[in-house]
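Q: Two folds, back to back.
A: First:
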Amino acid sequence: MDLPKIKTLIDFVGRTNVTELTVAEKKVTVRIFRTVGQAATSVDTNSAEGEIAGPASPADGASSPVGASSTFTVKAPVFGVLHRSPAPGQQPFVNAGDRVEEGQTLFIIEAMKVFNTIAAPHAGRIAYLTDVDGGEVETGDVLAEIV
């Protein structure tokens, strides 16, 4: 995998609500993950070339202006299959009315065999929760509202 491709993936994670992305190509696996406003990248190869680390650019609308509405909307960052629980038959990550902490996992969206964890952007209570589970969601679909 070439450096421009890796930079594109880092930019993608920085622009979206995706918290983790893993892409494998030939003998190289790139794993990009973000925690509260930062991203780290590691590149694994069979020849053990080492790691690459760097911050991803924050999304333009990632932080809410102070004094804005106290309702935070969680939207699907990518098209894919929405999973409300970590595995079939298990309890969902969250239910309507639950209190959540910033960074807490709300959903997983499966897109092209990549599982993207969707985390709470802010602490609060789940006021609205989509009823989609195991079905497709489009980029920008409202998945939850946190007050």
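A: Second:
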Amino acid sequence: MSHDPIRRSQRLNQITHAPHEQLDKAVKAHAPFETLASYRRFLSAQYLFQQELKALYTDPQLIELITDLPARCRAEQARADLNDLGAPIPAPVSGAVATASMAQALGWLFVSEGSKLGAAFLIKRAEALNLSDTFGARHLGEPAGGRADGWKRFIRILDDLPFSPEQEEQIDRGAVAAFERFNVLLQHAYACPAAAQPA
């Protein structure tokens, strides 16, 4: 059986490069670690994104592939962070991923899981606001077993799945859509006047 010269995860990194860059610029423009008020808005977007993906993290079909999937979800940590900071739990935003094929769902999870690597840098910035993985920045904390190990295990499973050409297209679409969706939620969080106010 011949393998592609490029692994699926490498291709996903390549095709999401542009939306990833766009999102990075948007995050930087909002300067989430300059003030606690700005961080609350960023946290609100993180919570909304993780809450939307909860259905994927608890999907029985996906758990068969990735047994520790439910434990990887960060929706509860983000909710606890909002509570720590006395910030309101944001209402859902229309346009969430509803029905996704398995391949599409894995594209979304690829982005969510990959963001845990970047969170290693973000939590250092959060510390300047007196936040930590036990207060206000739990969702940025290091997962059990370490960031790199969790990511490598996820990628190994992802790269070894036998996919049809149609599924390859679906996983690509899912990954790009995930970056675009986080950007939408980020803009929403910074446009919403209530997000920065303590409850």
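Q: And?
A: Residues 8-192 form a domain with the Heme Oxygenase; Chain A fold (CATH 1.20.910.10).
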